[in-house]
Amino acid sequence: MEKTKEFIKEKGMPRRSFLKLAGLSSVGLSLGFPLNTKWAIAGEPKSKKMNANWLIDPITGNKYFVQNDLLTQWANEERYVLARHDGWWWAFQVREFNSEFHDWWIAEKTWYYDQLIAQFEEGIAPNVPNGGHHHPMLTTYGAKWFNRGDSQFHLNTTPKGFTIIPKPDQIDYVMNEIQKIYDDPNADLPVDVFKKRRELYQNKDLWDKSRFATLELYTGRPIDSEDTDGNYGFNETHTFQNIMENSMATLTYMSLYNTDGTQSYFDGNKDETPTFEFRGFCWLISYYNPNLTENTYEKKIADYINQAHCGYHGGSCHVATNIFLITEEFNNSPGYAEGRGKRVVPEFSYGVSNNMKVAKTDLKMKNMTRAEKMELLRKLRIPV
User: Fold this and answer.
1) What CA–CA distance (Å, rounded) separates 308 from 163?
2) Would you call 146 helix, strand, or coil by DSSP?
3) Distance, CA of 96 to CA of 4 (rounded, Å)
4) Which of the residues 72, 128, 256, 359 has the least number of beta carbons within 10 Å of its own beta carbon?
5) 311 shares its domain with 180
């Protein structure tokens, strides 16, 4: 309760606005919130507005934003956040993705680097499609009155270049390992960076399993920037505008290829389509926020993601960062018994057996009848 009082005092809300403390529904209670008291606080109605909360650093003249609907100071240690949505403040626990997702992500990331390295070292044409581990779909939902005027809708789905990020106490180590390669005049760029990252990802102990991160490339360029690519005709992406109004979001991954039976994950089954959905909150970090000193977690993560992007792609190295904090994980793989939309983090029982397996077949299509081909489509759930 002391944390509740501390939060209320910090936000400076009128007494009548926050005294609607109530126990959450039975569904909410089952999720295991971290506070001793399950509670929510009513927020004040928002005034109509068209732009984000932009400020100007009086010293540098750079623009920066402040995210007011998500409080993250407890995200690393206590592992929870306070988020405002639907007009109320709620407490949500920050959780970790499971080992099945981690194994799949590392395997696909490793394959991805193998393809790139072969391109540069052996001249082999790369087979690196978009999507998969690096381009999940991020879905956000904002507010009717908060938009840039080019749509009547305030929801948005877009692919983003997300990655996993180091644990707080490992950020400096990982960054230094990569920077040493960039600083080495004899390094074979970018191959040596690819090889080092491939090596580092194999060490699961380095990585924070409770979050992903990406950049908001087309939002919030600094004032008087030399980056002429910042002239887009708008100042904020739909994603950014939605998050500034409602930080709750979903992130969905689908594998580039089906499993072939050699993988350690998904029970070693063939013809599975690994598909994962995460529900959580987007934590936006403005690179030019003067309150982010060199030793703050936000500044280190912003530097890490920018190093990965501008080191390889070039362009600005001071882009706004988006950290996705996980609260729930679902396995949406269509043919997998443990999937089909089941929540796996935190574990949830649906009262049914998960032992049912989807039938597989080794029939060769060349000599199959039409009926056999249609049956194969049904069993394998091949998209058509």
Assistant:
1) 10
2) coil
3) 25
4) 359
5) yes
Give the Cα separation of 259 and 100 in Å (integer).
13
CATH number of the domain where residue 119 is located = 2.30.110.10
- CA distances (Å), origin 168, targets 95, 104, 209, 210, 355: 15, 23, 11, 11, 39
Bridge-based pairing state of the strands 80-85 and 342-345: unpaired
pLDDT given at position 19: 35
Residue-wise DSSP of 172-196: HHHHHHHHHHHH-TT--TTHHHHHH
User: What pLDDT, on the 0 to 100 scale, is given for residue 382?
Assistant: 53
Question: Which residues span the domain enclosing 87?
Answer: 2-53+68-93
The pLDDT score that the predictor gives to residue 12 is 42
Q: Which residue has the tokens 């102990």?
A: 205
| 211 domain residue, yes or no | yes
The pLDDT of residue 365: 57
Q: Per-residue confidence at 379, pLDDT binned at 50, 70, 90?
A: low
| Interaxial angle between packed helices 297-313 and 171-183, expressed in degrees from 0 to 180 and rounded to the nearest 10 | 30
CA 365 to CA 376: how far, in whole Å? 9
Q: What is the DSSP string of 80-129?
A: EEEEEETTEEEEEE-----HHHHHHHHHHHHHHHHHHHHHHHH-PPP---
Same domain, 194 and 335: yes
Residue 237 lies in a domain: yes
Cα separation, 266 vs 274, in Å, equals 8
**Structure confidence by residue, pLDDT tens digits, 135-185:** 999 999 998 777 788 999 999 999 999 999 999 999 999 999 999 999 999
Instruction: Give the Cα separation of 157 and 139 in Å (integer).
Output: 4
Q: What is the domain count for the chain?
A: 2
Pair 152, 203 in one domain = yes
Q: Which two tokens stand for residue 237?
A: 């992406």
98: amino acid identity, one letter: N
Other C-beta atoms closer than 10 Å to the C-beta of 279 total 19
Q: Residue with structure tokens 């040596």?
A: 192
8-state DSSP, 53: -
pLDDT surpasses 90 at 372: no
Q: Which two tokens stand for residue 203?
A: 């060490």
- The helix/strand/coil state of 75 is coil
pLDDT band at 313 (very low <50, low <70, confident <90, very high): confident
Q: Cα dist. 270→18, 88, 150, 223, 266 in Å?
A: 53, 45, 45, 53, 9
